């Protein structure tokens, strides 16, 4: 594991190097023959976590518990659908990584501001990825340890009381039944349930971490636009001392890099469009249901619901912030080009600048199902709409 997570100097110009090494273990990258491991885990998770979920109101499952069960079902469905869509979009996913690595490799042997920018951004992405993994590790610990830490001591204290006075009902990590087992009152059945879901919760956490690689790719795409801006600023300061042939070569490389960045954005939008549409709709429903449950319950179950709430909120914040940054960096290219006083250059040079400006005016953005752009504004609208639905639900029930 230390070898997989280790970072070398060669990784400075690679795309998600250690992430891809972890994905290769799961069959999500590289040798596709290992993909059977993922399918086996998905089937087991479906049988243990998704299929047994209660979805009807009864004396055993009051309305609040059904709300929680549906929220957990939506959360699991988002994980499943993301993996399925990424399996379908495996070729665009591979293409965007290869294009990004080819673009970054152009700066590998250079010692200038662009290469320094790549090293800095790649180091930040690496630190973010580790922090994101640590947060999800904390989620797993909170999600799986908080209920038993409360349940086992409470059960043994209650076991000393007369049978008629015992009122033990276990707090569950997940709101569900398990094929006839009495997981709410029988300590042995509860233990079987708890032990069986721990590895599957870890697996779902790995899927969430894998989803995090998608907004890391958005950040790498943004880096290409930043490199275009940096190259244009260098051209602005050095243009007076450059011959026409050197200007021609430099601008040719800048146009090519800008075109690569735009191609990567199109590929990412192709990969993410359906995922983000499902994610936004699911997030809207999930936030509404979780808010409703949290305000109706004041026990340790709130910790587990809080973990789901925090996870989905952070995920959408990352997509929205990075989508907004991507759009702004591409728009900034137009200003960088104008600052080069391109209109004073010969016609052959002006054509390059006109192409760059026209490309930067075509809005580079990540969309949710082609319906709306993913940025800070749409994220704020999502939160506002979720809260509105929660207030309606609160008044109705």
Automatic annotation (TrEMBL):
Major subcellular site: membrane
Transmembrane segment boundaries: 35-54, 66-88, 132-150, 187-210, 271-294, 300-322
GO BP of this protein: signal transduction
Highest taxon above the source species: Eukaryota
Keywords: Cell membrane, Membrane, Olfaction, Receptor, Sensory transduction, Transducer, Transmembrane, Transmembrane helix
GO MF terms held by the record: odorant binding; olfactory receptor activity
Cell compartments where the protein resides: Cell membrane
A GO cellular-component term linked to this record: plasma membrane
Topological relation to the membrane, as annotated: Multi-pass membrane protein
Official protein name in the record: Uncharacterized protein
Source organism (scientific name): Anopheles minimus
